[in-house]
Structure formats: C-alpha cells, structure tokens
Specification:
Blueprint (H helix, E strand, L loop, with lengths): L2 H21 L3 H9 L5 H22 L8 H4 L8 H18 L4 H8 L5 H25 L5 H27 L2 H24 L1
Helix pairs in contact: 1-2, 1-3, 1-8, 2-3, 3-7, 3-8, 5-6, 6-7, 6-9
Length: 201
C-alpha cells in the first residue's frame, strides 16, 4: 500500500466517519470524493458501504440511552401517515444506497419534514441507514466485491472511521435542535450537488 493511498484513505475515513457520527449519514458524501482519487469506483463504493455500516452501528450504540423505547408511541399524534409516499421514499433511498452508498439522503429529507426532536430524527434515520447498508454489504459480498484488496483497505480505514465517528457523536450531543436541522438541510443540498456533478463529469 503506497504512502499516497494511506494519506487519502485516512483523510476520507476521518471525514466520512465524523459526518456520519454528527448527522447519521453522509459517509459516502465525504469519503467518495477523496477515495475516488486513488481507487476505482466499485472499490471505493464497497469500502464506503462497509465504513458506513460499521460507524452506523457504533453510533447507534453510543446514543442508545437517548432513544426512547416504543418510539412509535412517542411521535406527535397529529402526524398523518402516507404509506405510498413513505414506501417510495424508502425504495428510492435503497436505490441510492446500492448505487453509491448514499442511502441516507432521501430518508434525511423525509425526516426533516417531520416535527421531530433531534433524538427522534436519529432514532428513525440511523437504524434505517444501517439496515439498507447491511443489505448493500450482503449484495456486494455475494457479488464478489470484497476481495483481498478492498478488505485490506477497509480494515485499515476502520479504526480511523470509528474514532472520527465518536468525535462526530460528541458534537451531535452538544448541538441544538435548530443547528441539527440546518445541518441536515445543508447535507441534503451537498448531496444533491454531488449527484449532479457526478452526472455531468
């Protein structure tokens, strides 16, 4: 593994891990732009999926005490269910997760439209992201994406991702509800710009 690859790997892992801890998604948003400089797209996406899932599980565990059991009963009573729209949003989020490990973009947009607290938003967004990325990991593994090289890269990136993710969680615990909502809005904007840039270039 070259020094250049290690430097890019650490930078991408740190950026992706931190934003995942802070916002509950966004590993791909921060890491792909860095890792695509030194990895082929299929390999970068496979490693991002693994890092997203690993940091997501850790983050959910770290904030578990702030999540209320039986979340369904604690949600606002005036919230109207829209099963078709909600299902389409989840399906589209899954498609983005499989294509570029960006499974959190559309669920975040959906959560931002709900009158939820910071913890309630995280209680919905983080598990959803983990489930989708877990399925993506299984599909990638069955498809043969995790050969020796991407596995080696993932193992090297994992400690940096988890440490940076803990730092993101620490900031998440301290920011206000308003700041968290603004963060989600800017993250969605950045995700949209990233997707447009990829299509154009």
């Amino acid at each position: 593994m070259s020094v250049e690859l290690i430097v890019w790997l650490v930078l991408g892992a740190a950026a992706g891990g931190f934003i995942n801890g802070l916002a509950g998604f966004g590993t791909a948003l921060m890491s792909l732009g860095v890792w695509l400089q030194v990895m082929p797209p299929w390999q970068a996406v496979a490693v991002v999926a693994a890092m997203s899932a690993a940091s997501g599980v850790q983050n959910l565990w770290l904030i578990r005490r702030g999540l209320k059991p039986g979340l369904k009963h604690s949600l606002p009573k005036d919230m109207k269910p829209h099963p078709v729209f909600d299902g389409l949003e989840g399906f589209a989020g899954g498609l983005l997760g499989g294509a570029a490990s960006l499974s959190g973009v559309l669920p975040t947009m959906w959560c931002a439209m709900q009158p939820w607290t910071k913890m309630e938003t995280s209680a919905v967004l983080r598990p959803c992201n983990i489930v989708v990325l877990g399925i993506v990991l299984i599909v990638f593994a069955v498809s043969g994406y995790y050969t020796a090289e991407p596995l080696t890269i993932a193992v090297c990136a994992l400690p940096v991702t988890l440490i940076a993710s803990r730092a993101g969680i620490a900031v998440f615990r301290r920011i206000s509800y308003t700041a968290f909502r603004y963060l989600l809005i800017w993250m969605m904007l950045a995700s949209g710009v990233l997707l447009i840039v990829r299509e154009l270039f």
